[in-house]
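User: I'm preparing a small set of examples for a lab meeting where we compare how different chains pack in three dimensions. I only have the primary sequence for this one, and I'd like the structure in token form so I can line it up with the others. Please keep the answer compact; I'll paste it straight into my notes.
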Amino acid sequence: MSPARSSTELPATRPAGRVAVLLPCLNEEATIGSVVGQFHTALPEASIYVCDNGSEDGTAEAARRAGAEVLLEEERGKGRAVRRLFREVDADVYLIADGDGTYDAASAQRLVSTLAGRYLDMVVAVRRSTEPGAYTLVRRFGNRLFSLLAWWRCHRTVRDLLSGYRAFSRRYVDAFPARSDGFEVETEMTLFAASAGMAWDEIECLYFARPQGSRSKLHAFRDGFRILRTLLWMPAAAAGERRLGGLRAAVLVAAVTIVATALFLAMNWLAVSGDPEPVADALRASLEHPDRTLEDSAERFNDCLLSLMALDRGGTLVERTVSPRRVYRYTRPQRPCDALEQRLSEGAVDDSDYLTVFYHQYWAGQRVMLQWLLPPLGVDGLRRMLRVLTFGLLGLGFFAALTRSVLLFTGREPEGGSHESDGDSKRWRENLFQAIALAALFLCLFLFLDLDRRAGSFTTGASNVLTLALLIAVPVLGIANWKPGRQVLLFAGFGAAIAYHELLFGSALIGLACVLLALATAPPPAQATVAVARDWWRALYLRCGGAYASCLSAVFLLRVVIAEFVFQEPVLFKFWDQLTHRLYGASRSSIHPDIDPFYASRPTVERFLERVGNNLGTVGFGSSAVAFILIGGAALTLVAGTVFVLQKRRSLEEPWRWLGILAAGWCVPAWFVVFSAHTMAHVPVIVRLLALPYAAAAILIVGVAVFGRRSVVIGNLGVETGEISESES
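Assistant: Understood. Below is the structure token output for the 729-residue chain.
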């Protein structure tokens, strides 16, 4: 930025032409007359326009008496008044100021001369106050902070972002969109000048205290928020837009995290403060049922635990709102099913015989679901509802995708060699890939998720429904083509929902991998070039996957911090203690061996192999042989697909698509290696996660087949796939 020069140094190579002074006003009867007179003196040839912005005093009459032309804008807001003035006034140079007498009218000639003499599009008056109280410390600090953010957005020094004393060229006014309604209009002016490549500068001018009888219309917090929102959301310089993406996404993720946490705590407060007897009656009816739907096996064990938490009334209401609690017998391992049955039959669990262990990261959302849905539906009814939702969504997604792929495949592919037909052919293949890949994804989830048992589980049923709903929504709603902010909000919200239903560890990983696989099937913009498609894929993956993972992590950390303050106990240490146990099998110092010997002991390879054998029957329609074939096929395809993508990475049109598929597939094997102790201790969860590498392998096969040109063989699978032709790359 060039240093400010005095009017004597300005080259007078271009006449200013017609000059218009614009004064937006609200209730400035005490000052507007003198302000109009001062500008008449400073710019005798200028036309002066006052926009009365819904004043309740005699502002308009005072302005007319002083010789100004008055425009009326009944809807209040400085931005609306500026918009009206820019629309109605015709001039070559526009000088805008306030009608409160705080700006130095004698500097008007210098602003106009600077604009005309240096061929600028905007000149901003940097306020320099010599009077005490003219510029309060709070507003000075806010302006400095906002100006610093504007420097980051515009890539140049901004000394006074919020100055309302400015001169503009006709070219600027004709192009300025004027979208702002309030005091953020000055921020919009500066950002527009930067984004449109306008030439502009700042010069110092005097700034005076408000005269007696004049009152500021600025509300510090409300208008400060609107200015900040404008700074973060409006486009500025191109490089600034790239740097803005991370900050904007972080703000959206933080907002979703705070809103989700507040909503959860409010709902949990209502749930835990309610009468537990309706829940107890529904559980008693279930225990008396001949089939005993509450029993100690697999997910039913966790369902008993959740039911016990729903009935637990120990501790203060605040403590129970922040965290569910896990109850154990102190003298020997206590199954939640036994504790639940004893509580229902005897009325309560004796606190002297049981120890409550706070679990700050698990099963919050399900407790609300039990409190509200269990009494009217009963245990069987609630499980039936979860099963219907799960299998209904799974079947809907599979058959819709399969039907679309059949219709596309039986239809005629565009023929001919013209540029248009090449584009039509590519879009046809994109749509076909999306339909077949989604059908393969839903089929893989059906084969591996052990839905017969887990669809009706209180712990996994809700997260299954959320994930399946997202998979269907991505292609149906065209989410991949939404604006970035809406994408971040959606996937951050999905992360928060998963975090509050079943945070660690399986559902979080399933959610992330399914996000990547769903995005992999989304076709890029129809007219995208190769370079645009590459940037589009990278941005889509990083934005959506990052929003999901960031919000899930943020929700978890916020819950832990809140619990830490409420309970005044080392919650973070307990989480780290559990994490190290899951990573490499370290004994848990935060749980007494007599309370939970399963967690306190080190898992063994023998126990792992035994549990693998017992749980393989849940994969591949209950056949261990089919399960081994499917798992082996998935492993071979992932290895071969990885080699293929790495070899052809320079010639692939959309490398980020294939990298996203491979990331979804390899996340589960990587999980096996990193969480070795957890793998051995929780085989049922790990078997459930096997859907992800198989789904990634299936989509990879579909993709290279649909986009192939020359047949090759991938690995040892004998599956015919293809290589992208040179013309496509």
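A couple of notes for your slides: The first helix runs from residue 32 to 42. The two ends are 44 Å apart (CA to CA).

User: Perfect, thanks.
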